[in-house]
Write a structure and sequence with these properties.
Elements: H1 2-30, H2 37-62, H3 66-91, H4 97-116, H5 118-126, H6 134-170
Length: 171
């Protein structure tokens, strides 16, 4: 079970920080490259993480089948992620800038919270209490989340966005 938890921790970290990079690009574009775009995205992203982690804690105490609940949360988060480009396209029409940015901030909060719900769940699934080394066990789940987060930032922000920009320049 611990390897499964490590993999989920890595993948959720990768998707979360990769998505944060995309949100920064969207909000920065909407605000015309304003310097506070990053602060705005980071604020709502971290607020969503805090809220989601607290909700995840409550889920861990309330439900016994955490794999099922975690899977349901991931499916719902994926559904919201799929809808985001359509939502962005529909709000980016003749609406006011404040409305567009406010909707983006709400979406940033929601997607960050949904993914952060999984962090306490994977800690619960991946931590071995029986051997008395809780700190070492928790640190491994955290380690894989940080590796995934780092890879998400690098792959999405440093590779995919560069490739898409280059491709866009060619055509």
């Amino acid at each position: 079970m611990k390897y499964f938890a490590w993999c989920i921790s890595l993948l959720v970290g990768l998707m979360s920080l990769g998505q944060e990079m995309l949100w920064f690009r969207i909000v920065s574009f909407m605000l015309g490259g304003a310097p506070y775009a990053f602060a705005l995205v980071l604020f709502f992203f971290l607020l969503g993480i805090a809220f989601g982690a607290n909700l995840g804690k409550a889920i861990c105490t309330r439900y016994s089948n955490l794999q099922l609940v975690g899977g349901m949360v991931l499916i719902f988060a994926g559904f919201i992620d799929i809808l985001i480009p359509f939502i962005i396209q529909s709000i980016n029409q003749p609406n006011s800038l404040i409305e567009c940015v406010l909707i983006c901030c709400i979406l940033i909060f929601v997607v960050a919270a949904l993914k952060a719900i999984l962090f306490p769940i994977v800690h619960h699934l991946g931590t071995n209490i029986a051997n008395g080394k809780v700190g070492a066990s928790v640190s491994k789940v955290y380690f894989f989340n940080i590796i995934g987060s780092t890879l998400g930032s690098l792959l999405i922000g440093g590779v995919l966005l560069v490739i898409f920009l280059f491709h866009q320049c060619l055509f």
